[in-house]
Amino acid sequence: MNRIRVSAIMLLSFGVLLTACSSELRDASDLPSQPVLFGAHGKGYAIMSSDNFHATDIRNRLQWDILGCRTCHGYDYNGGISQLSCNSSGCHLAADGGPEACYLCHGDSQTKKIYPQWYNAHAVHLEGGPRSAVTIACTDCHNLPINFEDPAHIDKETPGRAEVYFNNAIASIKTIGTEGEPTYDATTGSCSNTYCHGNFTNGNNATVVWKGQDQGKCGSCHGDPDTGNPLPRSPHPQVANCVQCHPGAIDASNTNPDPLLHVNGVLNVFGQERTNW
Ligand code: HEC
Ligand code: HEC
Ligand code: HEC
Ligand code: HEC
Ligand code: HEC
After folding, report:
1. Spatial contact of 169 and 150, defined as CB atoms under 8 Å apart
2. Is 143 a pocket residue for ligand 4 (Cβ < 6 Å)?
3. Which residue of 79, 119, 125, 214 is most buried, as measured by CB atoms within 10 A?
4. Residue 40 falls within a domain, yes or no?
5. How far is CA 107 from CA 5, 102, 134, 137, 270, in A?
6. How far apart are CA 116 and CA 139, in angstroms?
7. What is the pLDDT of residues 174-226, one digit of tens each?
8. Span 223-234, mean pLDDT?
9. For the CA atoms of the chain, what is the radius of gyration?
10. Which H helix or E strand runs over 13?
11. Which residue has the CA at smallest separation from atom 14 of ligand 2?
């Protein structure tokens, strides 16, 4: 397969070279015809179940660098000299960027969501969840490339991972008892010292694992993580009827905080909105 590919590429450069050197050719019909590269990729390149499927090749051999595909399939992937358009294959849509569509490599092609779907933390932070409607931008946590070619997109130093930083205002809020700055540990894939996960007065300052399960249980940020009781430890009043002092911010069952008011950086107590606590 490699041999066929190498000869295909040689054939191609030969064709280009020939065109470039043919200054004495005046008539378009005198130009050498484009090479036909039958069998350019070997068997099964378009068949998902094949070991030679192109997505597997792109991952294993090319380390995700698909820009070379443009050489033959065209800058816009509409066929180019190969005359085989990726966009009319039924799999890639020109309007979404063809094979460069963000959702293809790390998203969901059904919903066209562009962030990883194989664990839950992206969805909760980007779309909000039942406990908090507060959402965060990609660039609050790591770079968002402007397109596939962006030099900040795919790097060879830390392959397969995003370089995480903290740029989020809520995560960095300080209250009485806050210790340290929010940090991300790439080795363990975990966040610590975030306001959101309990780095505040009487909070638990939980260290949460980004790709872990069940990282936002009731009690994990404030209260008792083992029993799930959200009542913050003393000196917070040890009275379980939250709604009595936090009216509007939680329902009468004392279990469902209002997602619009919860983990939003503002403490709702006695009908007031407090940032000085
Ligand atoms: C050297 C030119 C060349 C390059 C570079 C190239 N292709 Fe192709 N590709 C072709 C040609 C020509 C065909 C037409 C089918 C054939 O004869 O194999 C083709 C066919 C295909 C097919 C259909 C294969 C089939 O069996 O139906 C896929 C999928 C494909 N290319 C993907 C890619 C991807 C992905 C890249 C980049 C990693 C790429 N190509 C780079 C020339 C090229
Ligand atoms: C061909 C596959 C592929 C396509 C298409 C693709 N990406 Fe990526 N993307 C990757 C890989 C692989 C990484 C892992 C990054 C690394 O190794 O540094 C990545 C990383 C990222 C990251 C993490 C940030 C970082 O600093 O590494 C973001 C955000 C991202 N891509 C957004 C996009 C967007 C937006 C698009 C569409 C314009 C896109 N990607 C298209 C393969 C792809
Ligand atoms: C709350 C912070 C946060 C937000 C917001 C966020 N990400 Fe991430 N992202 C992460 C972390 C943490 C990782 C894992 C980094 C590692 O592997 O060490 C990651 C990894 C990734 C990766 C690499 C693949 C992977 O699963 O590790 C891609 C791609 C990515 N994010 C895309 C996006 C896109 C696109 C957005 C916006 C639509 C986004 N992220 C928003 C924190 C975030
Ligand atoms: C008797 C009144 C009262 C009840 C009942 C009450 N709280 Fe509070 N809560 C307060 C006050 C007052 C503050 C602000 C304390 C301060 O100024 O630091 C507070 C603050 C908080 C904070 C911020 C952290 C802290 O301790 O300052 C959380 C989280 C919280 N309450 C959750 C709850 C939950 C969950 C319940 C029910 C299980 C509950 N509260 C029941 C009065 C109450
Ligand atoms: C991801 C961490 C996290 C989890 C999980 C969590 N909380 Fe909170 N909670 C906070 C933060 C942060 C605050 C501080 C006030 C704010 O920013 O809204 C807070 C404040 C509160 C308050 C005070 C009112 C307010 O919103 O200002 C109540 C009541 C409360 N939480 C109840 C609960 C209950 C009940 C659960 C479980 C169903 C729960 N919390 C789970 C982070 C969390």
Report:
1. no
2. no
3. 125
4. yes
5. 30, 7, 21, 16, 43
6. 15
7. 999 898 999 999 999 999 999 999 999 999 999 999 999 889 999 999 999 99
8. 96
9. 27
10. helix 2-21
11. 160
Residue type, 139: T
Residue nearest to atom 41 of ligand 3 (CA): 138
Domain count, the chain: 1
Residue of 93, 3, 91 whose CA lies nearest to 47: 91
Determine, yes or no, domain membership for 80: yes
Dihedral sign, Cα of residue 145, residue 146, residue 148, residue 152: negative
In a domain, 212, yes or no: no
Residue 8 domain-assigned (yes or no): yes
- Quote the CA–CA distance of 108 and 135 in Å, as a whole number: 19
| Paired tokens of 249 | 């911010």
pTM of the model: 0.89
Q: Which of 105, 224, 111, 206 is nearest to 160 (CA)?
A: 105
263 Cβ closer than 6 Å to some ligand 4 atom: no
Close Cβ partners of 31 (under 8 Å, ≥ 6 residues apart): 19, 22, 25
